[in-house]
């Protein structure tokens, strides 16, 4: 085989570069759910207003530098010509090329510092949500406050943080184990959540809807499965959501599958998971002790599991997707709803017909198979025998049927 000529080689390079560029453009698809360039709240808009002009300036500088380098490489390539006269220094050029970038950097720095200060401002917030990261899910709790339309009994939930639309929400964030980072690209920038510290962040969404995000700091084996969503609801819908979260516990009907599920839940799950209002056979409250079971010392509160529509670090859907083309599934109906229809659909929660039973079953059957905890099983010793996530529980298929019937009533 003859070696490729210069011409075919440069054609190949051009083809690869073209394909790369096309891939880059494909990344700009407009329906990307985590697109910082589609701001849906004030802070994200402030970031966007800075990022776009800075990218434009940086892009222009990049293009000019690349063009000049290309020109020099071609123009002065070695053709066997004699070495040109050697000179040293050119003060005008050197001073000019120092001052010009300095001016550009100052020009970028002034709006950047202004933006950072605007983003840090949390004084105009009127609703508090505590956010706690742990391997590999986020807990959201709403302390007693006058904000958020008034909260008299704390609310604890996970995976989906529900906020009133057009309201400045104050996030107070921390972590129970390693450093995580809270990031909802369409609503605000990233904020690291660090054990032993409380970091604040302002969150606001203009319209009702679901805004996806993911943990943005590598935090262990299942970091990629640590997602979260902010759900924004109109004022009235937010009040309904609060009332639903605090509704009285309803025990399953006697002798039903769900009632067997309740018994099984107490036996297998309640040592980690709290269900508020749940009583044992003697009528005593069942209180979870996740601090004795899992390393971060917490597990999701399952009192209202079916009011959220994703689970296990928002990594799997609780709502089923449409199987066939053209059929609108339960998930799409909510996720793709227009802002004016969204609240009502979200508040319906997950019904039996809409449950994504496949993933929930797999989770109960073997959670670590879906969300690995350890690269090396001996790491269990490093955490004093406590698990980093939900362990394998060796449940029978009958038990899983019962538990799903029970969980379906947790609304
Ligand atoms: Cu994380």
Description:
The protein has 411 residues and is of the alpha+beta class. Strand 1 and strand 2 (137-142) form a beta hairpin. It is built from eleven helices and twelve strands. The termini are far apart. The mean pLDDT is 92. It has two domains: 35-77 and 87-121, Helix Hairpins (Orthogonal Bundle); 126-411, Immunoglobulin-like. The strands form four sheets. It has a five-stranded mixed beta sheet with strand order 3-2-1-5-8, with no helix packed on it. A three-stranded mixed beta sheet has the order 4-10-9. Strands 6-7 form a two-stranded antiparallel ribbon. It has helices at residues 6-26, 42-75, 91-120, 235-245, 257-268, 330-335, 339-347, 357-365, 367-370, 379-382, 397-408, and strands at residues 128-134, 137-142, 155-158, 160-164, 169-175, 180-182, 191-193, 199-203, 209-214, 227-233, 310-311, 316-317. Bound molecules: copper (II) ion (CU). Copper (II) ion (CU) binds at residues 133, 136, 180, 215, 217, 219, 223, 226.
- What percentage of residues falls in helices of 4 or more residues? 25-40%
Span between N and C termini? Answer: 70 Å
**In angstroms, what is the radius of gyration?**
27 Å
SS content category = alpha+beta
Question: What is the tally of helical segments?
Answer: 11
CATH architecture of the largest domain: Sandwich
What's the CATH class label of the largest domain? Mainly Beta
